[in-house]
Amino acid sequence: MQDTSVRETVRTPSPLYRPEVLMMGSSHAATGVLAGAATGVLCGSDPADVLLCAAVGAGAALLPDLDEPGSTVGRSLGLVTEKMSERLRDASRSVYLRTATEVELAEDKDGAHRYLTHTIPACAAFGLVALMAAIAPLGTGLVVFAMAALGLGTVARSLKKWGPLRKRRIAASVAAVVIAAGSMFAEGGGPAPWLIGVTIAIGALTHVLGDWLTRSGVPLAWPFVVRGKRWWMFRSPVAFHTGKSWVEDGIRWASLAGLPLMLVLSSPPPTVA
User: Fold this and answer.
1) Three-class secondary structure of residue 24 per DSSP
2) Is the Cβ–Cβ distance between 1 and 248 less than 8 Å?
3) Region of 186 on the Ramachandran plot (φ > 0 left; ψ -120 to 50 alpha; else beta)
4) Band of the pLDDT at 207, cuts 50, 70, 90?
5) Model pTM?
């Protein structure tokens, strides 16, 4: 599932940047919400931490698409995410050219969008970087803010009926600040750094698995060689058109509907008098 399918004009699109094969950012964010909340529940967190994990998961589920500056998430926070996307795109191209087999190099692909950041090692790297950042003073709040702002900023771009883009961005940023403040001043200090790291890794992996459901596929086996290709694109045997599929709509709404269930599961059982 990929946010780059949101129907907006993009700059310098990559060959895989086509609405009919990529999933919408709101779908990614929704699955990230559920994945983050489920991670919190499985790790034994209380409802407050589960909500924070859900917010972090929403942003983490968009991270793999930061390899495309023209994507919705690549433009979600303006210059900051655009520059970050440019760096990740360049890194993806470089790694592709250094690791691609002769068969792949003969195909003359650029190795930019939907390559490096859509691998399982990249998901682990996202989580590790977040863990290291969360250990630093005020790190947890900063990581939570970044992920919440990324997720809310991406969703805000699609809510065109809610006013000018600038106001939507400001509203998303304010909400992210509130969520981040909650993580720093919550009772018990909020989620542990390791939980933040795990949630971000799982959120990013949720994105990759979502893209596996689409027609473009993802390089799940990288860095191993499959059928002569190190970047072999795996895709579901029931891959579907995105942006106009009831399957995608069902995934999005089911994911959001699952959040209340996660909160119930994380709540302590009622005491018997």
Assistant:
1) strand
2) yes
3) beta
4) very high
5) 0.82
pLDDT of residue 219: 95
Dist. CA 175–CA 167, nearest whole Å: 12
Integer Cα distance of 245 and 94 in angstroms: 34
pLDDT of residue 93: 94
- Supply φ then ψ for residue 56, to 5 degrees: -65, -40
d(CA 234, CA 248): 19
Residue 32 near residue 58, CB atoms below 8 Å: yes
From residue 252, give the alpha-carbon distance in Å to each of 29, 60, 155, 223, 262. 8, 16, 13, 31, 16
Cβ neighbors of 252 (< 8 A, separation 6 or more) are: 24, 26, 27, 30, 31
How do residues 210-256 score in pLDDT, each as one tens digit? 889 888 889 999 999 999 999 999 988 876 666 566 777 788 788 88
Q: What is the distance, to the nearest Å, from the Cα of residue 97 to the centroid of all Cα atoms in its chain?
A: 25
Q: Is the pLDDT of residue 4 over 50?
A: no
- Whole-Å CA distances, 78 to 14, 70, 149, 166: 20, 11, 11, 10
Residue 7's closest CA among 20, 15, 25, 19? 19
Task: Find out whether 50 and 40 touch, Cβ atoms under 8 Å.
Answer: yes
Half-sphere exposure of 271 (CA within 13 A, CB side): 1
| 147 touches 55 (CB < 8 A) | yes
Quote the tokens at residue 7: 């129907």
Query: What does residue 121 show for φ and ψ, rounded to 5 degrees?
Result: -60, -35
